[in-house]
């Protein structure tokens, strides 16, 4: 910090509530239950600088209030089962309720729960579930006030920690060899990675609610016109995960880079509202043990 305090200014201020744990059971009239488990982070920006520079808390929305707003919306929102839509609803409500706030950033991490299929039954169980993987859906939403009548929203979604492995169908050859190279070229190898995927939807505009409780929020009803957009988020997520698994399994991989590009290309091609996709595929190496000293060759593919 400068010795000349008059030169010190607050350039950016943001705060909020991290990791609000939400578990919601939605019971339908036909006896079928739906569940979601989220970790929600809500951060806000706006005219809050005096809480930092002058210790004036009159502009502070307590993080306890943010937690309780999240719980309340999780109960009353019609969009709780779709994390992208719930995040948009939550951010819309917060920015509409507090006039001095101008920007809300919401991150939702969704844990996997899948219906149990009981032996001998045709349909999955109506209210019994199991954790069928450690990968998570991760949603990031940023909403900003624009003209007072609408909010601009940017939505990013994806997958984190999807662990995959195949025992053949992968090679790594033809790379630069020089005095620093010790890696042996391999025409056939085990390929394993923990997939992180992030895809960006085209920005959307959301009307500011005008009802007394500022809870109005609606999405387009004609999903035929919004296929592949943020309003089709669950289908986009299913396609993105499935194409990731399909290409990982079936691509005769010349390199992680080549397979990664094919995955991203397919995510964008299959979803008209997705304009960018980013994959991270770090190698999870399985190195064969050299047993030649015992007369066993287990290094030759």
TrEMBL record:
Catalyzes the oxidation of uric acid to 5-hydroxyisourate, which is further processed to form (S)-allantoin. O2 binds at residues 63, 283. This is Uricase. PANTHER family: URICASE. The lineage of its organism: Eukaryota, Fungi, Dikarya, Basidiomycota, Agaricomycotina. GO terms for cellular component: peroxisome. The active site is at 17 (charge relay system), 63 (charge relay system), 285 (charge relay system). It is found in: Peroxisome. GO terms for molecular function: urate oxidase activity. InterPro entries: Uricase (IPR002042), Uricase_CS (IPR019842). GO terms for biological process: purine nucleobase catabolic process; urate catabolic process. It comes from Boletus reticuloceps.
